[in-house]
Amino acid sequence: MHLLVTQSFGRENEYRRALLTIMSFWAWYSGPTDQVKTVLFTDAPEFFRPYLTDIEVDYVLLTPEKIKVMRGQIDFLHRMKIALIEEAFQRHPGADMLYVDSDTFFTADALPWMQDFRPGRSFMHLLEYPYEECRKLPLPMGVTFHAFLNLIERQNFQTSRGTEHYTATQESWNAGVMGLPSEILAMIPDVYQLTDQFYPPTQNHASEQYAFSLVLQTRTELHPCDQYVYHYWYRVKKQITDLVLADAITPEFQRKTWADKLTAVRRLTQQLPTTYEEHPLMLQDNAVQAFNENRFREGYQHAWVALRKSPFTPSFLKDVLYHAKRHITQA
Fold first, then answer.
1. Under DSSP, is residue 4 helix (H, G, I), strand (E, B) or coil?
2. Which pLDDT value is given to residue 317?
3. Mean of the pLDDT values across residues 142-169?
4. 148: Cβ–Cβ under 8 A, 6 or more apart, which residues?
5. Nearest alpha carbon to residue 223 among 85, 108, 63, 112
6. In DSSP terms, which residues pair with 57 in a beta bridge?
7. d(CA 1, CA 35)
8. How confident is the model at residue 311 (pLDDT cuts 50, 70, 90)?
9. 54-84 exposure pattern, b = at least 16 Cβ within 10 A, e = fewer
10. What is the pLDDT of residues 61-76, one digit of tens each?
11. How far is CA 243 from CA 100, 248, 249, 281, 295, in A?
């Protein structure tokens, strides 16, 4: 048995993202349905029930009191991920887990991934960087990353193994998607313990990711799984996704049969990666990023395409004029 676990709370756009996450799994999945159970941590189960009609869903209600406990004494939002993974394992003893953040969608059949689970093997979305890279981030933007690097280089940490030391050559893996065999439940106390030691002195919002990364790479054989899931963590991609889903997840969509819903969702997951690259919001962001780094020619190219697609965007026009003036001043 495998669990498909995600979380969604707070706003309707968050709920629509989670629908895409869950339904995209089922849109691509080719295995037996009775071998997968969806576990959804949410404050609004009634929003989801009319859409998730033909699968078994274990709804776990997120109340303000439960969220406060999950955030812990360090009051850290992403500590909730550790807590809900632990609870899902406890609710379904012996099951393996596919954990996915709600800003993800499946782009391939997960059955081969599930068949690749082995004792002593785990999965995270992809390797992002060795911690040494934190040293290169400019200040003040990179202050919390510098703080984390300084912490692991200067301090030892307490876990179930006793005193542990980590180095800048170890790696951060993206925790937005994880494949966790049931044996990982025994390692969750160490993930809590490291997160609670990482976050207060650094205020780094990747602290739970760093904890999962270090526990899994030192206790298991860690593999990527990005060939199955697209993680649109970037702010602009989230904005684009919300616009697309507001048009796609409608009362008419809700009335479709389960099979027709999955067909529509599968088509959407095939279209979204291209949509991101071609959307005016992404083109505008590409232009501003290029201008900020003084890559003016590239900035003008992105700006021209963006303005052709969406010419009436006063705030973006203002940005372009500002950078053009700055370019002229520097010339």
1. strand
2. 86
3. 96
4. 131, 134, 198, 202, 204, 206, 207, 210
5. 112
6. 38
7. 5
8. confident
9. eeebebbebeeebbeebebeeebebbbbbbb
10. 999 999 999 999 999 9
11. 21, 9, 10, 11, 29
